[in-house]
Amino acid sequence: MDSIIQILKQNNLSVTDGRRKILSLFLNSDGALAHADIEKNTDSHFDRVTVYRTLQSFVDKGIIHTIPTSDNSIKYALCKDDCKEGHHHDQHIHLLCAKCGNTFCLDDVVTPSVQLPQGYVINQVEVVVKGVCKNCNQ
């Protein structure tokens, strides 16, 4: 079975042309994608709302995760295998390349432990590092 169809079915999502094409973009991407990247690389018959709803359903199901950017927008990247609906386990660093502008998940670099004062509760830790990616540093 096609891996895209398998991912959608495992997450109880109907297999639509839009979901297949958007998920294919993520599977074939080295870095994170913005909403505009997805719109630009899919057929023009997918409107902004369809793309947004598809991305949100992928986030909700644990297929992709969000990455904050320096301009207060959001990028999206594939989750690891241990993410599931309503519970992400993507506790890694994201690198925003100053040269090419791409954002990369650094899966081998774990976010630092954060100890909050009593009474505070952590829901999510997001760390974005600005620097130069390995492709631009050659």
UniProtKB/TrEMBL annotation:
<keyword id="KW-0408">Iron</keyword>
<dbReference type="GO" id="GO:0003700">
    <property type="term" value="F:DNA-binding transcription factor activity"/>
</dbReference>
<keyword id="KW-0862">Zinc</keyword>
<dbReference type="InterPro" id="IPR043135">
    <property type="entry name" value="Fur_C"/>
</dbReference>
<keyword id="KW-0804">Transcription</keyword>
<dbReference type="GO" id="GO:1900376">
    <property type="term" value="P:regulation of secondary metabolite biosynthetic process"/>
</dbReference>
<dbReference type="GO" id="GO:0045892">
    <property type="term" value="P:negative regulation of DNA-templated transcription"/>
</dbReference>
<keyword id="KW-0479">Metal-binding</keyword>
<feature type="binding site">
    <location>
        <position position="90"/>
    </location>
    <ligand>
        <name>Fe cation</name>
    </ligand>
</feature>
<protein>
    <submittedName>
        <fullName>Fur family transcriptional regulator</fullName>
    </submittedName>
</protein>
<dbReference type="InterPro" id="IPR036390">
    <property type="entry name" value="WH_DNA-bd_sf"/>
</dbReference>
<feature type="binding site">
    <location>
        <position position="97"/>
    </location>
    <ligand>
        <name>Zn(2+)</name>
    </ligand>
</feature>
<feature type="binding site">
    <location>
        <position position="133"/>
    </location>
    <ligand>
        <name>Zn(2+)</name>
    </ligand>
</feature>
<comment type="similarity">
    <text>Belongs to the Fur family.</text>
</comment>
<dbReference type="GO" id="GO:0008270">
    <property type="term" value="F:zinc ion binding"/>
</dbReference>
<dbReference type="InterPro" id="IPR036388">
    <property type="entry name" value="WH-like_DNA-bd_sf"/>
</dbReference>
<feature type="binding site">
    <location>
        <position position="136"/>
    </location>
    <ligand>
        <name>Zn(2+)</name>
    </ligand>
</feature>
<dbReference type="Pfam" id="PF01475">
    <property type="entry name" value="FUR"/>
</dbReference>
<dbReference type="GO" id="GO:0000976">
    <property type="term" value="F:transcription cis-regulatory region binding"/>
</dbReference>
<keyword id="KW-0805">Transcription regulation</keyword>
<keyword id="KW-0678">Repressor</keyword>
<keyword id="KW-0238">DNA-binding</keyword>
<feature type="binding site">
    <location>
        <position position="100"/>
    </location>
    <ligand>
        <name>Zn(2+)</name>
    </ligand>
</feature>
<dbReference type="InterPro" id="IPR002481">
    <property type="entry name" value="FUR"/>
</dbReference>
<feature type="binding site">
    <location>
        <position position="88"/>
    </location>
    <ligand>
        <name>Fe cation</name>
    </ligand>
</feature>
